[in-house]
């Protein structure tokens, strides 16, 4: 498992872009994790899956709700990472009203999730390989804090906990 002080691994994430802009076309676009995190403070939170109960009712809405406070605490971007495809993440982002606040990043093959050492096997529940629930603060590609939830818990990776960590620093 990645640790505090380590650099993010090489990986590619995909984001469904709703509006064409310089360097991005409509639809799924690929992004190099290290390049996207370079020179920024990013909160990255991972969760088991789009449209799942805790993820939809608490995890993503908390980051949307605390967006302004996280920005005031020096966060440049917030990424939600899930082992889903970019189309699903795009639809979930529309449903959760994340536009302009949380980037819904697809890790469809679990490449980043595995490289971080944060995968879990939910095959017995029909979900396959998924991400554990976690949140990290990354400064210029280096992990500053990492909070990984115990199985079935939602206590340390929520937006309020990450905000408290940032305001104590």
UniProtKB/TrEMBL annotation:
- The residues forming the signal peptide are none
Q: What GO cellular-component annotations does this UniProt entry give?
A: cytoplasm
UniProt keyword Transcription, yes or no: no
Q: Where is the active site?
A: 55 (cysteine sulfenic acid (-soh) intermediate)
A Gene Ontology biological process noted in the UniProt record is:
cell redox homeostasis
According to UniProt, the reaction catalysed is: a hydroperoxide + 2 glutathione = an alcohol + glutathione disulfide + H2O
Instruction: Return the CDD domains for the record.
Output: PRX5_like (cd03013)
Enzyme Commission (EC) number: 1.11.1.27
User: Which keywords belong to this entry?
Assistant: Antioxidant, Oxidoreductase, Peroxidase, Redox-active center
Q: Which SUPFAM superfamilies match?
A: Thioredoxin-like
Q: Which GO terms describe its molecular function?
A: thioredoxin peroxidase activity
Residues of the Thioredoxin domain: 2-168
Report the top EC class in one word. oxidoreductase
**Xref: Gene3D superfamilies:** Glutaredoxin
Q: Which PANTHER family match?
A: PEROXIREDOXIN, PEROXIREDOXIN-5, MITOCHONDRIAL
Its family remark reads: Belongs to the peroxiredoxin family. Prx5 subfamily.
General function of this protein: Thiol-specific peroxidase that catalyzes the reduction of hydrogen peroxide and organic hydroperoxides to water and alcohols, respectively. Plays a role in cell protection against oxidative stress by detoxifying peroxides.
What protein name applies here? Glutathione-dependent peroxiredoxin
Q: Which organism is it from?
A: Paraburkholderia acidiphila
